[in-house]
Every structure is written in structure tokens, then in C-alpha cells.
Amino acid sequence: MLYVDTPTPQDIARLNAARGDVCISIYVPTTPLTQRIGESRLKFRHLISEAADQARAAGHAKREVGLAEIALLHLAEDDHFWRVQANSLAVFATPSGVTSFRLANKLAPSTEVADRFHLLPLMRAVTFPHEAFVLALSEKGVRLVQVFSDMPAKKVKVPGLPKDAASHAGKTTINDKSSFTRIHGEEGQRIRHLSYLRAIDAALRPILAGRDTPLIVAAVDPLAHLYPHVNTYHRMAHDQIRVSPDAVKDNELARLSVPVLDGVYAEDLFKAAQVFEQHSSNGRTATDLTDVARAATYGAVDTLFADMNDTRPGLIDDKGHVTFAKADTADNYRLVDEVARRVIVNGGKVFAVRAGEVPGGRSVGAILRYPV
């Protein structure tokens, strides 16, 4: 089992706003297998030493560096904490404290010391959907289950939800071959099914209104085939969980939803890339890091695709001018990370992706609000 602490947008905003001479960001791969966690703890201690050496080499106050290092070492020695892990661990430390997140996605080990935190890998955890509603649907009954990456699934109370297909139709069964008004046989059953599904969709509307959480249908035909025809929720996943949910427990539905959520993320990324291509001909895209940095500084970036593994260091001034550095030290920061921060501050959206997922084939790709 993965023990995940998914960062909220508020967590990202708080870390994004943090400033100080010693801001340490550490990412280390971990494992949910407790008996194999020793290697991760050893790597974490190594990264702590690397961060402390980098901070001291930059001339930061020994006391400040020491406080941050001690706080990180306390975490390294916490047996209870290391007993429950996921696939990666993100840790952010200052002389005043430590914040950590156990992440479902697998990240490469890294350490960064600057006057701000390195957040792009963490942003990928937020970009990817870690929550969904599963509509468990059959003729015998229907339930709405909310599933999470970091806590058990829970059933959602939905007022007005039909008990089952037969009682909604006012019959003991809907699988007889008798006439339904003037329609007979299989066509009559289809009409009853559609009426049942419309009632379900109507009951869900107040629950789903204003949300952007994916909705995943768990059902078999004919209901699995018919439900998309009556659905009115904008975020229904194209893929479905093709099982009869009557005998499937909620936590099993949560497990089965994971590959569907992978598809939802891939579709979101594909659609955003299509928008990028549409705007590339009218001057509303940019792929050069210096151009994107300037646009981000002035609030011109609507959507940013950022390669979270781009480690180029440097500085960006208040006018968006980029100065590249020869080496990553505690006196500079990762440029792509800072561009992403400026996009978020100005209300833009960030897709933290891997190499090859950025439109245009560069380390950054921006959809602009207006030509610059």
C-alpha cells in the first residue's frame, strides 16, 4: 500500500512564497516495502550532507545551515516516519522547520539549495489527478464512491438516487419481454435503462456541480454503453472500469481507477498540446526559455509546459531578463522552476512534465494570453 501525502494547491502556494538564505529541497526515490527502505534512508542522508556542503560553500551563516541540517537529520532518524512510504519523498527545509510529502510518482534523486524551494517535481504531483468519483452502476443498484490516492475510498450520499432499475421502472424486473407502452422486447428494456440512467445523472448534478474531479463509470454493458449518452457532467472519463460493481468493494474500485486516471492525465496533456499547436501560428506561443521567462514575469503566460528535469541554473531579474550560470550553487536556482513560479503567481497553469512531453521539443513551452 502507498502512503501518500498529496500536496494541496495551498501547500504549493505556501512553499512557492517562501524566501530565505537557506531553502533546501530534497527529492529521493523510496519504496512502500518497509524491508527495503534502508537504501532510501541512506540516500537521503547523503543528500542532506550534499545540501549542507553546498550552503556552507556559498558562505551562508553556519548557525542557519546547522539548524536546517539538524532538522533534516531528525527526519532521517525517525523510524516511524520511514516505516510508511510511497514511491518518492519530497522534503523542504529551512532553519525554522521541515515539510515533507510522500508522493505516488517516481522521481529522480536531487538536492537544491537556493533562496527559494525547487518545486517543479512536486507540481507534477498536483498536475496529475489523484482523486476521482467512481459511479458504480448496475441494474441491481448504484452508488457513488469518492476515491483518493492517500486515503481510503468513501461512499458519497446522493439524495434522489434511484434504488435500482426495476423499482425506478415500477416493475419487479426490467428483463421481461412484455410490452413497454407501444415498444416491445429489447427496445422496451433499452428505454427503461435510459430512463434509469437519466434519473441517476439528474441526482448527480447537484453533487458534481462546480467540480473538475474526474468521474469514472464502473459498469458492464448495456449500462456501460448507454450511460455516456445521458451524462451531462463535463469531466467524465472516456475509459471505464469494465466490471460489474455489485460484488466489488469500494477500495478495489479505487485500485481499478488508477489506470483510468492515467488516461485522464494523458488526455488533458494532449488537449493542452492541441491548444498550443492552434496558437503557434498566431504568435501566442513561445518555446525559448528567455522569451518565456520575460512573458511569465509580465503575466502573459496562460499555460506553461515545463520539463521538471531541466536543471539549468541562473537568475531571472524583475524584468524577466535571464542570466545563465555555469554551475548550480546556493547563489542561484533552477531557471525553469522560477519561470513556473512566476506563471503560478500570475494566475497561469503549469504542466510539470518530462522530456518529450513539452510541445515544440524544448524544455519549456508557453501558451500566451496575448502576443509579446
Lay out the secondary structure:
Blueprint: H1 9-17, E1 23-29, H2 38-57, H3 62-76, H4 79-83, E2 88-94, E3 97-103, E4 110-114, H5 120-127, E5 131-138, E6 141-148, E7 154-156, H6 165-169, H7 185-208, E8 215-218, H8 223-230, H9 250-279, E9 285-286, H10 289-297, E10 301-307, E11 313-316, E12 322-324, E13 333-334, H11 335-345, E14 349-353, E15 364-368
Parallel strand pairs: 5-8, 10-14
Antiparallel strand pairs: 1-2, 1-4, 2-3, 5-6, 6-7, 9-15, 10-15, 11-12, 11-13
Kindly describe this structure.
It is a single chain. The protein has 372 residues and is of the alpha+beta class. Helices cover 39% and strands 21% of the residues. It has 11 helices and 15 strands. The protein has helices at residues 9-17, 38-57, 62-76, 79-83, 120-127, 165-169, 185-208, 223-230, 250-279, 289-297, 335-345; strands at residues 23-29, 88-94, 97-103, 110-114, 131-138, 141-148, 154-156, 215-218, 285-286, 301-307, 313-316, 322-324, 333-334, 349-353, 364-368. The chain has a 4-stranded antiparallel β-sheet, sandwiched between helices. A 4-stranded mixed β-sheet has the order 7-6-5-8. It has a 4-stranded mixed β-sheet with strand order 9-15-10-14, with helices on both faces. A hairpin with a 2-residue loop joins β2 and β3. The chain is globular. 38% of the residues are buried. The model has no long low-confidence stretch (mean pLDDT 88).
